[in-house]
């Protein structure tokens, strides 16, 4: 929940709440050729509703983006931008005009045709109706026009390296002009799946779209089964209750799945930065020296080994290695308790560490608390129900000193440019670097973003504990699972079950 680029287990609703069916277009039994197999995927991130235009968090696009809603483009496994609803696009010499040629014959699950009118409608809605901070990523758009039914033209106010990439996120999702009346409950998209049944607090089932324009899914349905407890999710896979654990929440338990005759373990990377957030807007973390002391006080290697069984990668700033401008910044603040104490000048502090009640945050917080205590900072840990209380108290109100959250949205360094964002970080020079990067040449973009990442690190705007790994465990016969999770969606389109 990410723009809040956060891994939000959006849910916490009471088990047994009435199921919400939806999605005209149906699934098996409503038309089309029945599929041979279904798949059940264990997850921790349940949506609070199904509207990612007004609700922060990663859980909704994780389930619906690419699977139910499609954009003109999408990200492939290597982070490249590839065609989806647009067959191709042309860029003008001044880099301000993008002409998208749309695939013919595409229909929404409601049966309505997808045309350039829907492109205009969808992109105009980002500015007029979206509630999320991330909509600012498309402020660079000057106008969106229909040339003909299969051609849409987007004109930018200035050249932008980030525009097309933003179009591969939820911001570029295409909506039907007649399909937005009840977005929280009834998604209408062009994708290979439609909403089958949503049992709040338990599961969300997507059924194959029998009228899908592209390659039909190999599965009749995919059910996301939500678990609050890592042990329960592991047991569900061991006993056959689910087919896949989408994100392992107890890495030390992987030995349970060491039988290659029954299970497969996939380990790759994500762009999810597990951030130790410091509230730059109030004492003591409005003092750069105190923030720097925190960074020196944390033994990141020991934290990763203890909290997440050594799985993941140390990074040192808000850029993952899959971005072209990544630089290893882990050496900026080496573990040095003596230096931390020197920066604190003999002062001691008691601070409020308000964290989401998610496994990685709870485990990491215990290590952070112990290490900060060694230099004179007492961190009182307060787990908050996730997402509702954490979003309200930390993200919205900024009522915290320290927090820990996994920011999963791609290329999200720009969240530090918004001084009203919950970090409360305010450095105009950082914003200038981002603006220069967006408008410049490819090399200028890389150079400026390297400088921006260095500035964040130098300012100790936050601390970056580790890069969250992509850890998936599945039954042996499941194919098409992603090696890396570097987009917002869990793309079900390649999944199959032998």
UniProtKB/TrEMBL annotation:
PROSITE patterns: PROKAR_LIPOPROTEIN (PS51257). It holds the Pfam family SBP_bac_5. Residues 81-406 form the Solute-binding protein family domain. This is Peptide/nickel transport system substrate-binding protein. GO terms for cellular component: ATP-binding cassette (ABC) transporter complex; periplasmic space. CDD domains: PBP2_NikA_DppA_OppA_like_6. Keywords: Signal, Transport. Belongs to the bacterial solute-binding protein 5 family. GO terms for molecular function: peptide transmembrane transporter activity. GO terms for biological process: peptide transport.
């Amino acid at each position: 929940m990410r723009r809040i680029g956060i891994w939000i287990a959006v849910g916490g609703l009471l088990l047994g709440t009435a199921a919400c069916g939806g999605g005209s277009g149906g699934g098996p039994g409503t038309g089309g050729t029945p599929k041979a197999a279904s798949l059940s995927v264990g997850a921790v991130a349940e949506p609070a509703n199904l509207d990612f235009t007004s609700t922060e968090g990663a859980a909704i696009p994780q389930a619906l983006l690419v699977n139910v809603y499609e954009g003109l483009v999408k990200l492939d496994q290597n982070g490249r931008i590839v065609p989806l609803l647009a067959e191709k696009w042309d860029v003008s010499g001044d880099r301000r005009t993008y002409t998208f040629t749309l695939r013919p014959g595409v229909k929404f699950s409601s049966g309505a045709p997808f045309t350039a009118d829907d492109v205009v409608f969808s992109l105009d809605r980002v500015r007029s109706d979206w509630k999320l901070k991330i909509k600012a990523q498309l402020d660079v758009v000057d106008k969106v026009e229909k040339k003909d039914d299969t051609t849409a033209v987007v004109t930018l106010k200035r050249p932008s390296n980030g525009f097309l990439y933003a179009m591969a996120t939820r911001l570029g999702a295409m909506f039907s002009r007649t399909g937005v009346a009840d977005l929280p409950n009834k998604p209408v998209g062009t994708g290979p799946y439609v909403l089958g049944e949503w049992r709040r607090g338990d599961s969300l089932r997507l059924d194959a779209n029998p009228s899908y324009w592209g390659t039909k899914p190999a599965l009749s349905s995919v059910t996301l089964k939500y678990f609050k407890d890592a042990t329960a999710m592991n047991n569900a896979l061991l006993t056959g209750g689910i087919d896949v654990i989408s994100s392992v929440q107890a890495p030390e338990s992987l030995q349970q799945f060491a039988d290659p005759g029954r299970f497969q373990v996939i380990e790759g990377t994500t762009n999810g930065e597990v951030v130790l957030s410091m509230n730059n807007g109030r004492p003591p973390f409005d003092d750069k020296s105190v923030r720097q002391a925190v960074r020196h006080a944390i033994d990141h290697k020991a934290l990763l080994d203890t909290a997440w069984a050594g799985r993941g990668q140390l990074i040192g700033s808000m850029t993952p290695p899959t971005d072209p401008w990544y630089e290893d910044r882990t050496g900026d603040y080496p573990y040095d308790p003596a230096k931390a104490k020197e920066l604190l000048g003999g002062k001691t502090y008691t601070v409020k560490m308000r964290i989401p009640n998610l496994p990685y945050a709870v485990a990491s917080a215990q290590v952070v608390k112990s290490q900060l205590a060694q230099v004179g900072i007492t961190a009182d840990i307060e787990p908050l129900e996730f997402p509702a209380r954490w979003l309200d108290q930390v993200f919205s109100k900024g009522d915290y000193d320290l927090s820990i959250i996994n920011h999963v949205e791609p290329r999200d360094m720009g969240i530090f440019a918004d001084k009203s964002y919950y970090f409360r970080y305010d450095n105009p020079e950082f914003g200038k670097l981002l603006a220069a990067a967006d408008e410049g040449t490819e090399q200028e973009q890389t150079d400026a973003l390297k400088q921006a990442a260095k500035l964040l690190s130098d300012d100790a705007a936050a601390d970056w504990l580790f890069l969250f790994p992509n850890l998936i465990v599945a039954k042996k016969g499941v194919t098409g699972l992603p090696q890396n999770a570097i987009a917002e969606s869990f793309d079900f389109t390649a999944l199959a079950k032998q």
